[in-house]
Design a protein that fits this description.
- By secondary structure, the chain is α/β, with parallel strands linked by helices.
- It folds into two domains: 210 residues, 3-Layer(aba) Sandwich (Rossmann fold), CATH 3.40.50.1010; 78 residues, DNA polymerase, domain 1 (Orthogonal Bundle), CATH 1.10.150.
- It has 15 helices and six strands.
- A six-stranded mixed beta sheet has the order 3-2-1-4-5-6.
């Protein structure tokens, strides 16, 4: 019992330190990820008028939980562009495996935007640019200004952005990932994440990768050769590595070099997107309380109404 008490005290202290480190961070939220996750993770709800509301309800709960846990004066919710991006022109099968947005989810987009605006949360969509690239640009801009950044997403591509000032909030596991945590999770540091994904591919975005190379092999290769360029400059040395199938890996890499470098371009997040706003513009506005109550009543978020106002707006 005494050991358990001591352990709890240590964990509490660690949590206090973490909260102190990321106090008032710039929070960048992958809005498209949140929206889809809310749609599939929460019940398919509708109000008495038959309007679908489940994704809106779920996303508001996710946002409230995050914003209560990490109070911040600067927040940006970024959504993917509707148009094709440069990655689609590099590889016409990019994200081609993803199903078309369900009609009942599409109907919730405009009401969600109205809800976010009323709450006072800044949200953006840049034409012909993915949310990842907007977030990457804002995150690096903030990092250069020595501002702490918390990126909330479930997309493993974002791990490449992590620095001492930039952390990932894993919404699925409810943990914060800095450089050490990224290294522990993937077996490679943040600066090698794009090489890691280029080798093994990314099924969620239909990024091909090198056939025959999975997580384990990609990790071993990058632990021995620092990046894709170093790997291709030392193909003759791969067979000397002591892991199953090492003798055939150099041949696979040689045969699929073009695919490997194409995959690298697809997974690399752009951090120099031209934006007409900056991290300094991500200021949380004052909520329109009366209008927000009307909207919550319209969509029949009865339980969320009290919970949201007490737990989030009390902090805003």
């Amino acid at each position: 019992m005494y050991v358990l008490v001591i352990l709890m005290m240590i964990l509490s202290k660690i949590k206090q330190i973490m909260i102190k480190i990321i106090k008032n961070p710039i929070i960048l939220i992958d809005g498209s990820f949140y929206f889809y996750r809310a749609y599939y993770a929460y019940p398919s709800l509708s109000n008495s008028l038959g309007e679908p509301t489940g994704a809106i309800y779920g996303m508001l709960k996710m946002l409230r939980n995050l914003l209560v846990q990490y109070e911040s004066t600067h927040i940006g919710i970024i959504f993917d562009s509707k148009e094709k991006t440069f990655r689609h022109y590099l590889f016409d099968k990019y994200k081609s495996n993803r199903p078309i947005m369900p009609d009942d989810l599409r109907l919730q987009i405009k009401p969600l935007y109205n809800m976010l605006k009323t709450i006072g949360l800044p949200f953006f969509m840049v034409p012909k640019v993915e949310a990842d690239d907007v977030i990457g640009t804002l995150a690096l801009e903030s990092d250069r200004a020595n501002r702490s950044v918390l990126i909330s997403t479930g997309d493993k591509d974002m791990a490449q952005l992590v620095t001492r000032n930039i952390a990932i909030y894993d919404t699925i596991q409810n943990i914060v990932l800095g450089p050490k945590e990224i290294h522990h999770k993937y077996g490679v540091p943040p600066e090698l994440i794009i090489d890691y994904l280029a080798l093994m591919g990314d099924a969620s975005d239909n990024v091909p990768g090198v056939p025959g190379i999975g997580k384990k092999t990609a990790k071993i290769l990058l632990q021995n050769f620092f990046g894709l360029n170093a790997l291709y400059n030392n193909l003759d040395k791969i067979s000397k590595l002591k892991f199953y199938g090492s003798r055939s890996i150099s041949e696979k890499l040689y045969q699929h070099k073009e695919i490997a470098y194409l995959s690298l371009k697809l997974v690399k997040i752009k951090t120099n997107v031209k934006l007409n706003f900056s991290y300094a513009d991500l200021i949380v506005f004052k909520s329109d309380i009366n209008q927000l109550k009307k909207m919550f009543i319209k969509y029949e978020f009865n339980n969320l109404l009290q919970d949201f106002f007490i737990k989030y707006l009390a902090y805003s």
